[in-house]
Amino acid sequence: MPGTRFKGWEKQSILSQEYSSLSMAYGIHPYFLNGEEFRSIDLLGGFCESNFTVAIGEIGLDIWPNSLPIDIQLAFLGLNYPSLSH
Asked: What is the pTM of this model?
């Protein structure tokens, strides 16, 4: 089950504890990156380590006016997990 925003990660974690058949992927979709605090991006790796995570996602590379620079979007790929991307 992919995540797209920081504020939903905790809810996902609770669901995965209640339903063992669900596998979680925590991420921040590029569409929401401008609205996220950079602290959220920094927290992703630690959150994944402390919660059972099968992948990072959803992530992707979006390029449009006012989108965040590609290097920030690429930072997710540096985490040691498979990724769900578009």
From this structure: 0.84
